[in-house]
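task queued by scheduler; priority normal; single chain, no ligands, no partner chains; default sampling; output format set to structure tokens
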Amino acid sequence: MKVVVTGGGLAGLACTTELVAHGADVVLLETADRLGGQIRTTRDAGFLIEDGAATLDPSGDLCPEWAHDLGLGRDLVERRDLPMLVLLNGALDRVQSGDTAALFGLPAGSSAGEAAPVSLRDGMDSLVGAVVRSLAGKADLRSGNGAVALQRDGNAWTVSLEIGPALTADAIALTIPPRPAAWLVHPVDAAAARALSRLSARATVVVTLGFARSAVAHPLDAAGFTVPLEAAEPGLHSCAFSSSQFDNRAPADAVLLRAVIRPGRGELVGVTEADWANRAVELLAPLLGIRDDPLGAWVSRWPEAMPDYGPRYAADVGAARETLRSVGQIELAGAAYDGWGVDGAISSGRAAARRLLKRH
């Protein structure tokens, strides 16, 4: 079976891994010039900055299991056992047990904040690098070249590319966000495109700041703090004390803070990186007693970072899947469709691969 996987994030990589393990011929397409999606690690001046996902999920064992399978078991590090704070009425306080899911804006029953997350000693992109190495010679991984059109020809798919000749495939795995997925499938299934276009997601801006330890009065004796969902749109969503959570995130005489901000309408592209950095400092300074300029600032913008799960969300995902399957061998995968975070992306990618294999 020949499969085209569109999207080179963790869902696409997990889907590809599962497919090649069962003998499929896979071409993975990624529009960006790098694989990994919302996992991106920057190393600068002794700081280790996670521009996107910073930890593996605290619930379940899928991510750690995969890391072990890829030879990264010794590189897994557990976050220090630190309390989580919450910003209430302008002051930081301890999170009460059982309140974490609502405070983080996670689906009911999520356990984030109640179990210690894990990360990778040398950064989250170690996972992406290990997956890519494991697929060498087994799959055709193409970054910098995405799918621009789908066409159904009898029992086969034709996939037109940004660069080069079209591909022919028996099956398609769409591991991209709902909006680009809707645009791709509209010519072959307008009903699925409409369902996908109703799936919304919140944009985020991640601003990571490095400071001399003497520049921050707060003891930073916590994992960080979060802001209740209703008070954070738009505005500050959370701040991780990265250098308190894990070793090897900052030089010995420095600290690293990772602020997540929800932008207002038009701000995602309309505000400069310098302005985002300044805004983050202004928001954090009165809370943490910051009294000097940062040693470094790193800004990342994520247009569709946080799926806006709601009562109709799952129904729209189901409707899109059902109508697409009536057209041919095509599956949706990713955290935007099936579950929260890194673990959700991996499990969704694997499940999509298994459904394609079962129907072949």
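post-processing summary
- Residues 97-113 have pLDDT under 50 and may be disordered.
- The two ends are 7 Å apart (CA to CA).
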